[in-house]
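Appendix C reproduces, verbatim, an entry submitted by the partner laboratory led by Prof. M.T., so that reviewers can inspect both the input and the predicted structure.
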Amino acid sequence: MSLCFKSFNYPSNISCCLSKHTSQSQGKKNPALLRLPSSIIPPAEGSDNPADSNRSPLSNISSLDRSFSIQQDNSIGIIGGVSATSSLNFAKKLVKLNLKDEDSGPPFVLCSDPSLSKEFLSLEKSSSAFLSGKTEGLYTDHSLLVENLRSKRVFLENSGVCCTVMPCHILHSWHDEIKEGCSVPFLNVGECVAKELKEAKLRPLEAGSPPRIGVLATNGTLVGRFYQEKLENEGFEVVLPDKATVEHTVIPAVEALKRKDFEGAQNLFRIALQVLLVRAVNTVILASDELQELLPTDDPLWGKCINPMDALARSSIKCAQSARRGN
């Protein structure tokens, strides 16, 4: 069962979704409480109250923080990223993991802000901006972006979640800043996937070198370097595609996918993967949502790829299970 609400007059158009699962085998429900008093609903446009016009989006979030709570302290908080579809796909991962374990699983709260996608849309469509490494235009005011996301994190914490996740590759570039002052674990996708790979005890494919991990991203400057740092902290050697590979295979593959040229997209993507695999990488991290759609799951090359968001989902489930056992 899921319960969703949206504040349509809310300046940042925040949408939130509270999901609670029912275990048919046990016949138990995870109780949840949603309180939306009229005091938190912003006035409609054209309000005569002068104070309303000076109210910032962040002040509205603070009001929401005090009005929305859940009674399950094993709940997972999800900060929606640039793509609403990706946020929902992550929520589906949590549900699938719960079904796999034959457990009702922890409830989760999803907070999504559509304005984020508008800020990134122009650069996402511009491969030249990504390739040149010019990221200063990614968000007009970096401090406002961090403040925006931090306020969502605080909202989720005040809602009673046991941990918070942000299933967005690009936004993880500011994870440490958004994390400042957090009261519950704020899981990092790079650390989660690096930890799982470390636990897998991979053997080097070349003698005398550590295990190598390839990273493919449409934005190598922000995202690729972020994963590189986390993987190197665990002792891995990281292989990133050079500029020519990204420019002539990765970016065109995504563009072909958007044109629905699936065959062309797959051929280009296979070339990009082979460029990394010939350098003796054990596996390739696909650090882009678009890249997840380029190969069928039965393709041999797909077996060499991993989606880091799977590791983030598994880690959040473990955190929730640990919180539940601690009660």
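The chain is about 45% helix and 15% strand. Additional entries are available on request from the coordinating office.
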